[in-house]
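Can anyone check this?
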Amino acid sequence: MDAAAGTTAVPNLIARYAELVDAGDFAGVGALFAGGVFVGSGAPAEGSEAVERMLRDTVILYEDGTPRTHHAVTNIAVEVDEEAGTAAARSRVTVFQALPELPLQPIAAGRYEDRFERRGERWEFAERRVRIHLVGDVSRHLRA
């Protein structure tokens, strides 16, 4: 596997995370962290079950099974160390939400700092650190 494979796989994993969260597929998100850790505002969640549980405990889902959000991830920068089989990425995230009683609006913005490892022929999350810098009305997104 060459470095170009990592520079393709890593942004795809970053995008997949956003798609799964917005779809309300917390088991799918958890699977992305089977061998990794998620570090946000609470205690770190390590492994599939812990990440899935953390999301189920904190994110509000609606009748359609989704959190009614859209995670827009931009400014993705990836550095691959092919020899070590590792990669690091940093990106910006803006979370939008809309509900019948809530017009479309940004509710949070910050950055992701990610580490990845190549395991066999696959790249996987080793760690995601979420640093939210701007917070709007998250009362309909996160449990108190």
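Reply from J.R.: I decoded it. The mean pLDDT is 95.
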